[in-house]
Specification:
The complex is a heterodimer of chains A (111) and B (112). In chain A, 0% of the residues lie in helices and 59% in strands. Chain A is mainly β. Chain B is 0% helix and 57% strand. The chains are: A mainly beta (111), B mainly beta (112).
């Protein structure tokens, strides 16, 4: 199976919370990342969490990490139309310089 | 702020042409990466370089080569472009030992 898995699509209404989920398989992951890609653009680093943490909050963003289940989530509070984008989960592994990315979740925010 | 730039946003080439994609970063990063992005597949690593003239194959290097003659510049070369290389190409850079990567805006390549 894939190293990092995400659902492909999520639709929410403006003002609601969005939760984007990700599962990974490598227990040796050191950091886990969330990147955002707006239409026609490159990837922008949103936030990351070190593998010995279980939660990180940054303004409207909350990252939760469950190491036992190898599950990572990104919660966006008060979702806005400007949050519409593709969100990629990625992991770094010991001994590998590059990141391993999921397939991306397209978030659609409806007015 | 780290800035990673790519020479073209859009390129249209014909099958069999030699194609050069250029990437430049201004933060003196040792590591540079080339990924391709395809719908439903996420980003897949083509090649990366950890120093000038040093390179390693990624997960999908077939049909590609790279060049790193200067620290700030990392080029991706398609020796003979094929239609299955139509894709979005993303360059990234990072410091050694730092997993956080910074991405350029991408080059959307169409091979006819």
């Amino acid at each position: 199976g894939e190293d990092v898995e995400q659902s492909l699509f999520l639709s929410v209404r403006e003002g609601d919370s969005s939760v984007i989920n990700c599962t990974y398989t490598d227990s040796s992951s050191t950091y886990l990342y969330w990147y955002k890609q707006e239409p026609g653009a490159g990837l922008q680093l949103l936030t990351y969490i070190f593998s010995n943490m279980d939660m990180k909050q940054d303004q409207r963003l909350t990252v939760l990490l469950n190491k036992k289940d190898k599950h990572l989530s990104l919660r966006i509070a008060d979702t806005q139309t400007g949050d519409s984008a593709i969100y990629f989960c990625a992991e770094s592994k010991a001994g590998r310089r590059a990141l391993t990315f999921g397939s991306g979740t397209r978030l659609q925010v409806q007015p | 702020d780290v800035k990673v730039t790519q020479s073209s946003r859009y390129l249209v080439k014909r099958t069999g042409e030699k194609v050069f994609l250029e990437c430049v970063q201004d933060m003196d990063h040792e590591n540079m990466f080339w990924y391709r992005q395809d719908p439903g597949l996420g980003l897949r690593l083509i090649y990366f370089s950890y120093d000038v003239k040093m390179k390693e194959k990624g997960d999908i290097p077939e049909g590609y080569s790279v060049s790193r003659e200067k620290k700030e510049r990392f080029s991706l070369i398609l020796e003979s472009a094929s239609t299955n290389q139509t894709s979005m190409y993303l360059c990234a850079s990072s410091l050694p030992g730092a997993e956080t990567q910074y991405f350029g805006p991408g080059t959307r390549l169409l091979v006819l």
